[in-house]
Amino acid sequence: MKNAIAIVITLIWLTPSAAQQDADLAKKLANPIASLISLPIQANYSANIGATEDGSVWRINVQPVIPFGLSENVNVLSRTILPIVSQSDIPVNGAGESGIGDVVQSFFFSPANVPAGGIIWGIGPVLLLPTASNNALGGEKFGVGPTAVALKQSGKWTFGGLVNHIVSVAGEDTRADVNATFIQPFMSYITKTRTTFALAS
Q: pLDDT exceeding 70 applies to what percent of the chain?
């Protein structure tokens, strides 16, 4: 099976007025655990997969991020990944399904106040929820594991990474168990015109 690597590029244009506010907003948008409600949408395409390697998959990840103040010193951030999947010629030519895949739900606990230039981090649990609208679009397994994110913002640069590991603990016995690690480095830069360029693998 051959998997395509998804490269995500995000461009954010901000108005010339209120330069400092714009710069602060751009930094928050580059920070996956900022106290900012956001709705990123990520498109991924994979080809040459399936039994005959003729299959392809479009996966649109809708990723609402919602922060909560747990206390004066601790924030909790909810990050949901809801995949909308369309696959063709999988597992064999002529087969295919479209619909909702399995949801990955993460909760990050992070310090509410981080000194300027310090490391921003968050840790917590991640859940795999068997929400697929068709059993061909999901694993029919419930999974749990740890997740963590860390990043540093220096001037116009933001760089860091997110990692999680999920192990299935319940679900359909006839389906393969889940034991998966996910690692996502990311980097962004705010230009002089306050356009944010972001890159994540």
A: 76
Residue 58 forms beta bridges with which residues?
45, 86
Give φ, ψ of 55 to 5 degrees: -80, 160
Which 8-state DSSP code applies to residue 135?
G
Go through the chain and tell me how many residues it has: 201
pLDDT of residue 10: 44
pLDDT digits (tens, 9 = 90+) for 114-141: 777 789 899 999 999 999 998 888 999 9
Supply the pTM of this predicted model: 0.78
Classify 26 as helix, strand or coil. Answer: helix
What is the dihedral sign for C-alpha 27, 32, 34, 35?
Answer: positive
The pair of three-digit structure tokens given for residue 146, joined into one six-digit string: 């740890």
Q: What is the rounded end-to-end Cα distance, in angstroms, of the chain? A: 19
Cβ–Cβ under 8 Å, residues 21 and 68: no
